[in-house]
Design goal:
36 helices; 13% strand; 1085 residues; 3-stranded antiparallel beta sheet; alpha+beta
C-alpha cells in the first residue's frame, strides 16, 4: 500500500533551463499582472479623474507643449523596460480617457477620439502637432491597448521615451516573433486587451495587432500609401475597397443592399486668416481709435482656424449616392456636429501696444535710476520734435474737443465717444444686473494709498496718457521715439513754462477739478474741511459753498498744481492785476516781452511761441532768473518798505535751476562748483540723490529789509543779509505766528528796519466798526441787543502734504511739557485769533459768548424750551484758569481783516509750488506718474465692453484690480509687484485681442469665442451658431473647397466588429487600418 501511495504522489521535475524567449514572455506576463489587466481587469486607472484632468489640458504656448505631453504620458500610460537578446523594448499600457469614460462622451469623441492636445498658438515650425495619445486609439477605436515598441540596443537607461526615435525598422520576422510573444503572455494572463507591435520603417507608423477574447479572434492590419490611387480618393472607390477587403462578393446594386454597410466620417477644413487692416474695428464691443493708446496688437493675432465636421454613423445611402460617380467628399451641411478650432500668434510675438508702452516706460525709468540722462542735448531734441511737442502741449492745456491724440470717451462733443459711453453703460447694466462688477477707475483711485494717484482726467493724468501714446511703438509714424525720460523732461519743461505763464497772467490751470468734483468714496480728504472760515463754509442761506482746496489723497506733484490754482483763485478774488516776474537781465526782459506779446493770443499760438523761444535758448548760454529769484521778487515788505537787491545769481552756475531750460537737481555737477557759487543758493550736499533733492533744505541769502514783518527774522548789528533755510516746500507753515528755520547771521539791518519789525497793526477806536459784510438774520448781541454783523475774515491757509509734515515737525519739537503744549496750542490758533479780531472790529460791543454763537454754535448750550439768548457756554469755553479761548479773546485786538497780517500769502505760496515743480528730477517725476500710467492701462481695459461681456475676461480684470489696490511699493523699481501686475495686464490684453479678432469673424457668439480662446476649440452644436460660422467661412469658399483631412469608418451593420478605417490628407496620401474579427471557440476554457 505504501508503494501505491508513492506512485500516486509522483511528480515530474523539469530541470531544463528556460530559454530567452520564454523569459521574455514571462516578463511581459508579469508586467500585465502588475498593471492589473489580467483576468479581464481594466487596470488601476481612475477614469473620471483622467477625463477631468485631460479635458482641461491646453497647450497655450509652445514653451509648455513638452510639459503637457509629459503630463499626459504620466497620467494615461504605464511603461516598462523589457530586454530580449541584445535589444531593448518598451511595453506600454495606454488608456484614452475620452473613450474609456463614457459618462461625458461627445459624439466626436465616440467616433473619432482626439489624439492631439488643443493648441492655442500656431507653431509654424511643425507641420503636424505631436501625438498626445497613441493614434491606434483613433484608428481602431480601442479604449485601452498594449503595444510593444523598439527602444534601441541594450544598455537603455530606463527612460520611457523612444531612444531610437523613428530611425529604426522592424522586419516581418521580428514583428511575428514579438506578436507571438504578446499573444502568449496575454493568453496566460487572461488579458483581453488588444496588443500591437510595429512593422517596417518606424516613420511609417505601421502596426499589426491582435485581440483574443472568449468569443472572437480580432486581427488588425495597417497599410499606408504616399500616393493613393485616384479611385480610392472617391467615396464609391472606398466603398468598393471595403467590400472587397472583407470578401463581400455581392456588390450592392440597390439602396436596400447598401443598408448593411454603415459609414461615419470626419472632414477637417483649415484656413489661414487673411490680413485685414480693420480687424479690430468690426466689433461694436471694442473701441479703437487710430493714433491712440489702444488695447491689443496692431495686427490680427488669429493665424489659422479649422472646422471639423462630423458625419455620424449611418447607412451608406445616407451620404453616398451610387448613381453619382467621382464624388470625393460629403456635403458639409449634412454634418451632425461641428468642432471649431483656432490658432493664434504666439503671445511672446504679439506686440501688445498697451503693455509694451508700459514696459518701455518702466524699463527707461529703471535704467535712469543709475543713468540720469545728464548729457542729453535737450535743444537738439526740441528742434527735432518741435511740431509734435507743440501739439502735445496744446492737447494738454487745451479743451478735450481740441485734442490731437484724445482717446475715445474723453471728448464731450464726440458722437462716437457718446455712443461708446452709452454702449458701455448698457453692457454694464445688462451683464452685472444685481451682481458685483469690477471697480471703475474712480473707485480704484479712491482705494489707493495716500500720495499715489492723481484724479482721473486731470492735468497729470493727461500728461501720463500723452507720454504713453508718444512712446508706444505704434506711434513711431508721427514721433521719432526719443528716450522716454528725455521726452518727459522736454515736455515737462515746456508744460511748466505754460504753468508759470498762467500764474503770472491770472489764468487757472485746466484739468484741475474743484473740491466738489474730486470727491472720493472714502469721504472728504481736504485739509481743514471742518475748519473753513464761517464765511467760506456758508452763504446767506447756510448752504455749503464749493471752494478750491488741496486733496491730500493725491500725489504731491498734483497737490502743488492744486496749490497754484488755489493761489490764482485767491489772486482773482483779491482783484490783483496779472504780474510778470521781474527780469534780472536783458535776455529775461526779452522773455517778458515774448510773454506779453502772446498774452491775448490763442493757446495754440502761445504754446508754439513758448516752444520756439525755448529752442532758440541754449542751455547755459544766457543769464536767467532762478526760480528762487522769482520767489524773492514776490516778497512784499511791510509799510511799503522797498526790499533791497539780493546777491546776483550767476547764470553759468552749474547747479542753477532754470525753469526756462529746466536744469533740475539731477543735472547739477557739484564737482565743478566754486566756493563763491556754493554760497549763493543751494547747498550741494542737500542734492545728493533724487529723493534728497526733493526734501532737502535750500539756504537763501535775503536782504535784511526783506524780512520785515517778523520779529523772529532779525539780523545782527552790522549785517546786510539774513540767511533763511527753506525746505522743498520752502517751509510753508502758513497760519503760524512766526517764520521757522531762520538762521541769523552777524549782520545788522538799518535801525528803521528794526523799528518797522516791531510795529503792530493799528487797532480801531472804541466804538469804531470796520470789516462788516452783512447783519445776521437771526443773531443779536447779548449785551447790547444790536444786530450781529458777520465780519469779513481771511481765507484759510491751504496746505499740501509736505507743508503739513513740516508743521507737524515744528509742533512736535515743543515736547510734551505743559509749557510746550501751551505754545503748541497758541501756534495753531492763528486763524482763530484772526477771526476774533475781525469779529471784534465788526461788532464793537460784543463778548466771547457772541463770538462762540457765530463761530462755534455747538459750544452754545441752550436748555430745552428756552430762547437762544438764554443759553450758556459749554464747559470747554467757560471761564477758568488757563482756558485758551478766554485768554485768546482777552488778547485779541479790534483789527479788521484789511489791517491784519496775511495768514496765507498766495503770491509766496505759488512761487514755492513752482520752485518745487521746477526742481523735480525727471526720474522722480516719472516715479510720481508711474502709478497713474498703470491706472490708465486699467481704465483702457475697463471701458471696453468686450471685457465685461466675456466671463473669462471679467475674471482677469478683477484679478488685475486686486493686484493694483494691494499694498504696492510704487517707488521701488525692483518691487515684485510690478512684474506681477505687468504679467496680469499682458495676459488680459492678449486674451482680449484674441476675443476681438474672433468676434469680428463670429459676431455675437460670446460663449463660442470664450471657449476658443480658453481651450483652442469649441463644439458648434447650436443651429444659430452654425449659421454664423458657416456665413463667416463662406468667405473662404468652404462649401466648394477640398477638406485638408478626410477620415472614414466603414462598418458591416450585421457584424459590427468588421471595420475599415481610412484617412486621406490633402496631399492624397492614404492610410487604411483593417479591423477583422472571427468567431472562435474560446481557448481560455
Amino acid at each position: 500500500m505504501a508503494d501505491s501511495n508513492d506512485d500516486e504522489n509522483f511528480e515530474l521535475v523539469d530541470y531544463t533551463a528556460a530559454s530567452g524567449w520564454e523569459k521574455f514572455i514571462a516578463s511581459i506576463e508579469s508586467q500585465l499582472r502588475l498593471w492589473q489587466v489580467d483576468e479581464d481587469k481594466a487596470g488601476n486607472f481612475d477614469l473620471e479623474t483622467l477625463h477631468s484632468t485631460c479635458s482641461k489640458l491646453v497647450v497655450d504656448c509652445k514653451q509648455n507643449r513638452e510639459d503637457v505631453l509629459i503630463q499626459i504620458t504620466s497620467l494615461c500610460t504605464r511603461t516598462a523596460r523589457l530586454t530580449y537578446k541584445s535589444s531593448t523594448y518598451a511595453l506600454t499600457l495606454s488608456v484614452h480617457p475620452f473613450l474609456a469614460y463614457t459618462h461625458q462622451q461627445t459624439k466626436l469623441d465616440q467616433q473619432f477620439p482626439p489624439i492631439h492636445v488643443p493648441e492655442l498658438e500656431a507653431d509654424h515650425s511643425q507641420s503636424e502637432p505631436e501625438w498626445a495619445w497613441h493614434p491606434l486609439h483613433r484608428w481602431t477605436n480601442s479604449k485601452m491597448l498594449i503595444y510593444l515598441q523598439y527602444m534601441g540596443e541594450a544598455g537603455w537607461g530606463g527612460s520611457t521615451q523612444n531612444l531610437a526615435g523613428d530611425n529604426y525598422s522592424v522586419s516581418l520576422e521580428t514583428a511575428k516573433l514579438l506578436m507571438s510573444s504578446l499573444n502568449m503572455a496575454l493568453r496566460n494572463a487572461r488579458c483581453q486587451l488588444p496588443a500591437f507591435v510595429p512593422v517596417g520603417d518606424a516613420w511609417r507608423h505601421l502596426y499589426t495587432g491582435r485581440r483574443l477574447t472568449c468569443d472572437e479572434d480580432r486581427k488588425f492590419d495597417c497599410v499606408s500609401l504616399a500616393r493613393a490611387p485616384s479611385a480610392y480618393l472617391q467615396l464609391n472607390g472606398l466603398l468598393e475597397l471595403f467590400l472587397s477587403s472583407f470578401r463581400i462578393t455581392t456588390y450592392p446594386s440597390s439602396t436596400n443592399d447598401t443598408s448593411k454597410v454603415e459609414l461615419a466620417a470626419l472632414h477637417q477644413y483649415k484656413f489661414k486668416n487673411t490680413y485685414s487692416r480693420d480687424w479690430n474695428t468690426r466689433s461694436p464691443d471694442f473701441l479703437y481709435r487710430m493714433g491712440d493708446l489702444n488695447v491689443g496688437p496692431a495686427n490680427d493675432p488669429l493665424r489659422v482656424f479649422s472646422l471639423c465636421a462630423l458625419f455620424q454613423q449611418a447607412p451608406c445611402h445616407t451620404y453616398i449616392d451610387l448613381q453619382i460617380q467621382g464624388r470625393d467628399r460629403l456635403y458639409l451641411k449634412t454634418a451632425t456636429a461641428w468642432m471649431l478650432s483656432a490658432n493664434m500668434l504666439a503671445a511672446d510675438r504679439e506686440r501688445t501696444m498697451l503693455t509694451e508702452a508700459l514696459e518701455d516706460a518702466f524699463a527707461a525709468w529703471s535704467q535712469s535710476n543709475d543713468d540720469r540722462h545728464r548729457h542729453l542735448n535737450m535743444a537738439e531734441q526740441m528742434e527735432a520734435h518741435e511740431e509734435v511737442t507743440s501739439d502735445m502741449l496744446i492737447d494738454l492745456f487745451g479743451s478735450s474737443a481740441d485734442s490731437h491724440i484724445r482717446p475715445p470717451g474723453l471728448g464731450e462733443d464726440n458722437d462716437s465717444a457718446k455712443e461708446a459711453a452709452v454702449r458701455l453703460n448698457e453692457t454694464l447694466a445688462e451683464v452685472y444686473s444685481g451682481q458685483k462688477q469690477p471697480s471703475n477707475i474712480a473707485q480704484i483711485i479712491a482705494r489707493m494709498p495716500y500720495g499715489v494717484a492723481v484724479p482721473y482726467g486731470s492735468l497729470l493724468w493727461r500728461l501720463s496718457e500723452i507720454i504713453l501714446v508718444a512712446t508706444a511703438k505704434r506711434s513711431a509714424d508721427f514721433w521719432g521715439a526719443p528716450s522716454i525720460m528725455t521726452f518727459l523732461r522736454l515736455l515737462w519743461a515746456m508744460a511748466l513754462k505754460e504753468v508759470r505763464w498762467r500764474w503770472e497772467h491770472n489764468q487757472l490751470l485746466p484739468r484741475i477739478p474743484l473740491a466738489a468734483e474730486c470727491t472720493l468714496e472714502k469721504g472728504t480728504d481736504t485739509p481743514n474741511a471742518d475748519s473753513l472760515a464761517p464765511s467760506e463754509r456758508h452763504d446767506d442761506a447756510g448752504t455749503a459753498q464749493a471752494k478750491r482746496d488741496i486733496h491730500l489723497h493725491y500725489a504731491l506733484i498734483y497737490q502743488k498744481l492744486e496749490m497754484i490754482n488755489c493761489c490764482i483763485e485767491r489772486k482773482l478774488d483779491s482783484g490783483e492785476t496779472p504780474i510778470v516776474a521781474t527780469a534780472a537781465s536783458a535776455s529775461e526782459t526779452d522773455t517778458k516781452e515774448t510773454f506779453d506779446s502772446v498774452e491775448n493770443t490763442s493757446l495754440a499760438q502761445r504754446i508754439r511761441s513758448h516752444v520756439k523761444t525755448q529752442i532758440k535758448r541754449r542751455l547755459g548760454e544766457s543769464t536767467r532768473i532762478r526760480p528762487i529769484g522769482r520767489l524773492l521778487n514776490t516778497m512784499r515788505a511791510v509799510n511799503n518798505t522797498e526790499i533791497g537787491d539780493f546777491e546776483e545769481i550767476k547764470a553759468n552756475s552749474p547747479y542753477a535751476s532754470d525753469s526756462e531750460g529746466f536744469v533740475s537737481a539731477e543735472d547739477a555737477d557739484f564737482d565743478n562748483v566754486d566756493d563763491d557759487a556754493s554760497a549763493l543758493l543751494v547747498d550741494p550736499a542737500s542734492l545728493n540723490g533724487s529723493e534728497s533733492a526733493l526734501s532737502s533744505s535750500v539756504s537763501v541769502r535775503l536782504p535784511a529789509n526783506a524780512v520785515q514783518g517778523s520779529s523772529s527774522m532779525q539780523a545782527e548789528p552790522g549785517a546786510n543779509y539774513v540767511d533763511v533755510a527753506l525746505s522743498s516746500s520752502l517751509d510753508s507753515n502758513s497760519g503760524f505766528h512766526h517764520v521757522s528755520n531762520v538762521v541769523e547771521r552777524n549782520l545788522s539791518p538799518p535801525s528803521q528796519t528794526r523799528q518797522s519789525i516791531s510795529e503792530s497793526p493799528e487797532e480801531l477806536g472804541e466804538n469804531e466798526a470796520a470789516g462788516r459784510l452783512y447783519p445776521s438774520s437771526s443773531l443779536r448781541l447779548l449785551d447790547s441787543d444790536e444786530p450781529m454783523w458777520i465780519p469779513q475774515i481771511q481765507a484759510h491757509p491751504i496746505l499740501t502734504e509736505d507743508m503739513l509734515r513740516e508743521r507737524e515737525t515744528i509742533l512736535m519739537s515743543f515736547g510734551t511739557s505743559t509749557e510746550g503744549a501751551q505754545q503748541r496750542a497758541r501756534l495753531q490758533c492763528a486763524e482763530l485769533i484772526s477771526d476774533m479780531e475781525a469779529f471784534k472790529a465788526a461788532n464793537p460791543r460784543c463778548s466771547l459768548a457772541d463770538f462762540v454763537r457765530w463761530h462755534s454754535p455747538r459750544d452754545w448750550i441752550v436748555p430745552d424750551g428756552h430762547p437762544e439768548r438764554e443759553g450758556h457756554l459749554s464747559a470747554r469755553m467757560a471761564e477758568g484758569e488757563g482756558n485758551l479761548w478766554q485768554q485768546l479773546w482777552a488778547e485779541a485786538r479790534r483789527v479788521p481783516v484789511e489791517r491784519q497780517r496775511l495768514l496765507f500769502d498766495h503770491n509766496m505760496e505759488a512761487e514755492k509750488a513752482l520752485h518745487y515743480l521746477e526742481g523735480i528730477p525727471a526720474h522722480s517725476l516719472f516715479a510720481g506718474l508711474l502709478p497713474t500710467m498703470f491706472f490708465i492701462a486699467y481704465e483702457r481695459l475697463y471701458r471696453q465692453p468686450i471685457i465685461h461681456r466675456i466671463p473669462m475676461l471679467r475674471e482677469r480684470l478683477l484679478e488685475l484690480e486686486s493686484k493694483l489696490v494691494q499694498n504696492t511699493d510704487w517707488v521701488d523699481a525692483d518691487s515684485p509687484a510690478y512684474s506681477s501686475i505687468m504679467d496680469c495686464l499682458e495676459n488680459l490684453e492678449v486674451q482680449a485681442s484674441r476675443c476681438v479678432s474672433l468676434l469680428g469673424k463670429f459676431p455675437g457668439q460670446y460663449a463660442l469665442v470664450e471657449q476658443l480662446v480658453m481651450y483652442g476649440q469649441a463644439m458648434v452644436d447650436n443651429r444659430n451658431a452654425q449659421k454664423v460660422v458657416l456665413k463667416a467661412l463662406s468667405k473662404y469658399n468652404i462649401l466648394t473647397s477640398q477638406p485638408s483631412n478626410r477620415e472614414y469608418v466603414f462598418t458591416l451593420a450585421k457584424h459590427a466588429s468588421q471595420q475599415m478605417y481610412v484617412a486621406i490628407n490633402d496631399e492624397s496620401s492614404i492610410r487604411v487600418v483593417y479591423n477583422r474579427a472571427q468567431t472562435r471557440r474560446s481557448l481560455l476554457t
